[in-house]
Amino acid sequence: QVQLVESGGGLVQAGGFLRLSCAVSGRTFSMYPIGWFRQAPGKEREFVADINWSGGSRNYADSVKGRFTISRDNAENTVYLQMNSLKPEDTAVYYCNTNPPNPWYWGQGTQVTVSS
Predict the structure, then answer these.
(1) pLDDT tens, position by position, 22-50
(2) N or C: which end of the chain has fewer CB within 10 A?
């Protein structure tokens, strides 16, 4: 059974930073790219970043390029999202999933709130 559990969210002031973690159980971890997605209140869920199994290919949404960095630790089955220079518009619930997303793998997410 595959499970992805997000953690690391919180409340931070604009310009601050957070690091999110996505712990993945099951063999899916090494088979597919893992992505971070976010959903702000009243908006649809959107892609943030993803990383392939080797870490050699990373993609970012234009809105986070240069501020966010995705990485993975295959030994720990964990994917990270380092978020720097946070802006109020980054406020959202952040989720991890395979990319393309598997509807069965959505978890509870972790709340990120950036105050101005």
Answers:
(1) 999 877 666 789 999 999 999 999 999 99
(2) N
Q: What is the pLDDT of residue 59?
A: 97
Q: CA angle 64-60-72, nearest 5°?
A: 110
CA pair distance 66, 41, nearest whole angstrom: 24
Residue 26 phi/psi, 5° resolution?
100, 165
| Contact predicate 8/108, CB 8 Å | no
pLDDT of residue 2: 80
> Angle CA(9)–CA(111)–CA(91) in degrees, nearest 5?
100
Give CA–CA dist 5/21, Å, rounded.
8
Contact between 6 and 107 (Cβ < 8 Å): yes
| Span 51-66, pLDDT tens digits | 998 888 999 999 999 9
Q: Which two tokens stand for residue 32?
A: 């597919």
CA-closest candidate to residue 71, choices 4, 3, 20, 31: 20
